[in-house]
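Pasting as-is:
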Amino acid sequence: LLDEPFNALDEKSRFRVKEIIIEFQKQTKSTIVIVSHYKEELMDMIDELIYIENSKVSIVDIKWSNTFLA
């Protein structure tokens, strides 16, 4: 679980941390949960997005661009 891992980083550091997270995930084949208020900063590194707003959950399958609402 990573809670706002890019929040206090400059652009160069943010890019490097993203690379480290992606490489770690590839090596370990682990599921990584990243909490963020800015989904745009995650879009290039995620397979699935779980979006919560007003107690409603939306799951977006990034690979296939399907949206499911629960």
